[in-house]
Amino acid sequence: MPKPTLKQIIQSVLAAFIGVQSDANRERDFDHGSLSSYLIVGAIATVLFILMLVAIVSFIL
Question: What is the SS3 string spanning the chain?
Answer without folding.
Answer: CCCCCHHHHHHHHHHHHHCCCCHHHHHHHHHHCCHHHHHHHHHHHHHHHHHHHHHHHHHHC
